[in-house]
Amino acid sequence: MKIIITPRRHGVPLKSGEKLPTPEENSARIAEGRRKMVESIHRNFPTVKILGIVGKGEVLAEFPDDDLELPARMRATLEIETGTVPGQGPPEPLWRSDIQPTFEAVAEAHHGKEYRPTVVGIVRDEDGRILLVQSRFNPDEWMFVQGGIEERESPLVALSRELREEVGIGPRRIRSRPPRFIGVADLDAEDGRTDKRGFLKGKRYFIFEVTYRGPEKLKLQDAELSASAWVSSTLGDPQMMALLSGVRSGKRGLMIGALIRILA
């Protein structure tokens, strides 16, 4: 099965006084977009064979005939890595290199009341599998362990609390000390969704990777979670993509973006 894949190259409105890109600059942008797309395909989908370049930026790729869902999974991953059209579609996470996981950053977020500080724990077992948990309120939504950070908590303290409360993982079961910090991302709330605690824009996620050693079956918080699953850490894994398919677009982008940073 052969498919032509086009890099997502989106036009951004020019700022006042900004000049149009020259043909050479535009060609360079196209080439860079194609290069990143091919790198992503090689990294995440080794069974896909790149056959050559078609037109200015497209590439011709050959997919295994026995995996009909692979093109859709690959397009979803490429969309996360290359972004969406500015100002269109559902909100996408904005990764912040200027914010660190400190008590002060949490206090500032609470004071500003724009993005609610939230901790995320990507739990991996000693075989490298990743833990996803199912929301009791929305059976289609599978996610990483997560929860709000209180005003007088640091992200690491909140992470320890959420792991213990949601899935019964105490400090003695955590092999990685301290947990690996992955990054901070802001995610605007979707239209019609309001925050119960009065934050105006959305959530600010402080994301960590945790290595867990212990039994596969976990003690879930019944009030919020209904099931758990250990899935392969490969982005193209059918089980992982199937579970993430029901997650809201912006949150799915956050999850895949975090996984890309872990697995890169």
Highest-level CATH class of the largest domain: Alpha Beta
**Structural class by SSE content:** alpha+beta
What does the radius of gyration come to?
Answer: 20 Å
CATH topology of the largest domain: the name is Nucleoside Triphosphate Pyrophosphohydrolase
Give the total of domains. Answer: 2
Please give a quick description of this structure:
The protein is 30% helix and 25% strand.
Descriptive terms for the model:
264 residues; alpha+beta; Nucleoside Triphosphate Pyrophosphohydrolase; 2 domains; 3-stranded antiparallel sheet; 6 helices; 11 strands; 30% helix; globular
Description:
The chain is α+β, with helices and mostly antiparallel strands. The protein folds into 2 domains: 2-82; 94-263, Nucleoside Triphosphate Pyrophosphohydrolase (Alpha-Beta Complex). The protein is built from 6 helices and 11 strands. It has helices spanning 23-44, 70-82, 103-112, 155-167, 238-244, 249-263, and strands at residues 2-5, 49-54, 58-62, 94-96, 115-124, 130-135, 142-143, 145-148, 180-188, 202-211, 225-231. The strands form 3 sheets. It has a 5-stranded mixed beta sheet, sandwiched between helices. Strands 1-3-2 form a 3-stranded antiparallel beta sheet, covered by helices on one side. The chain has a 3-stranded antiparallel beta sheet with strand order 7-6-11, with helices on one face. The longest helix is centred in the first third of the chain and has 22 residues, at 23-44. The model is unreliable at 9-13 and 84-88 (pLDDT under 50).
